[in-house]
Design goal:
The structure is a homodimer. Chain A is of the alpha/beta class. Chain A has a single domain, classed as Class I glutamine amidotransferase (GATase) domain (Rossmann fold), CATH 3.40.50.880. The first copy, chain A, is 24% helix and 21% strand. The relative contact order of chain A is 0.16. Chains A, B: Belongs to the peptidase S51 family.
């Protein structure tokens, strides 16, 4: 049975990394003490070692040990043998490029489908969707494809941001950008606000975290869904 | 002699499209009354016809006529015969994809190098750089490459936005994103604020518009350059 937490952000303002998710993560990873961490998204160009060490510190608060996928000789075997997986945020282009380069995209999908509990934050959530076309990140690297895991039947926009009233900047709002996406693509997009996550348990897909999410569907006006909403109808 | 205006935005807040550039454009296009418009970036998914008609209205204020490249049977010939070119903003991924698809990237570069006056705004400015890796746009389409015109020896970040003091949003600032770009790439990036443009005349490359620009160079701290600064040393 698939088991995922797909979170908008690793960190909410004023808290330590993953802190707002600790209670949830204790349940999510209750059957394992060992987390395989994928540091490929490298926020700010941080090294894999430093990123993994930060994540290790966070998970030590809930008594889980963390090993980075780059510490294994064979990343594909590391995924196959994992009992819990966390793909962290950073730059989605960098992440997806490295997932293709290391040939771990398919093994990762198979692990998730086989029921290994998965946590994604930000870029690590983006890749759970059908494609990475709705990332907010700067395209600093050209990946072989924008196709991602597709373990949920829609696209994710993490760090979803409402238009700022009275803003004089002429760059597009997030809503405009996602609507543009839907002039070329038909899959739904979930605008996931910081502090929200999507919980997948088998065929159940629910919004959690106490906030509404903004839903964008092809040829429909965008609308809001409440916390705890069933998202499984979106496809 | 190359002659380009590479503008951060088509429109500044509270004004009509291109209005802030009219005096400059009269000089820039003083040798022609006919502008070839490239509407490929399609802001908000607008049709080529509607986009061209909007641009026609703007240019009629300075007595120039506008024809969209899509109105020609052969877009390559249209570029070869043009006497003034404007590539408008929208989505850079959509624009670059269509430039490749229509095989007009090389003809466009040749036209610019031969001295045909060029105006770019936003996405149309982005493509003047070496690559489109520093666009702010959402990757709603997968183009065949991120390589662009390279008619200036650096990258452009249009609509450059300073960090908002006191912001609680956890998504990356523009500065963070561009610094991330420089962990994988070495060319300079010019953060071009709305209201600014880069003026290229032969070998001269200058900042205009009354604002400072933020400069990002490989292995250097970002810094500011004043209005009218010479940018030709950046490569």
């Amino acid at each position: 049975m698939k088991s995922l937490i797909i979170a908008s952000t690793s960190t909410v303002h004023g808290e330590k990394p993953l802190e707002y998710l600790f209670e949830e993560l204790k349940l999510h990873f209750s059957n394992t003490n060992d987390i395989l961490f994928v540091p490929y998204a490298r926020p700010g160009g941080i090294s894999y070692d430093d990123y993994t060490s930060n994540v290790e510190k966070a998970f030590s608060q809930i008594h889980k040990s963390v090993k980075g996928i780059h510490q294994f000789k064979n990343p594909i075997e590391a995924i196959k043998k994992s009992t819990g997986i966390f793909v962290g945020g950073g730059n989605t282009f960098v992440l997806v490029n490295q997932l293709y380069k290391s040939k771990v995209l398919t093994p990762l999908k198979e692990a998730i489908n086989s029921g290994i509990p998965y946590l994604g934050t930000s870029a690590g959530s983006n890749i759970c969707g059908l494609t990475m076309n709705t990332t907010n990140d700067m395209p600093i690297i050209y990946p072989p494809s924008f196709k991602t895991l597709g373990v949920v039947p829609f696209n994710i926009n993490p760090h979803y941001l409402d238009p700022i009233p009275g803003n004089t900047h002429m760059g597009e709002t997030r809503e405009t950008r996602i609507k543009e996406f839907l002039t070329y693509n038909t899959q739904p997009v979930i605008g996931l606000r910081e502090g929200s996550w999507i919980k997948v348990k088998g065929n159940s897909i629910r919004l959690e975290g106490g906030l509404k999410a903004r839903i964008f569907e092809f040829e429909k006006a965008p609308y809001e869904l409440d916390d705890n909403a069933d998202l499984s109808f979106l496809k």
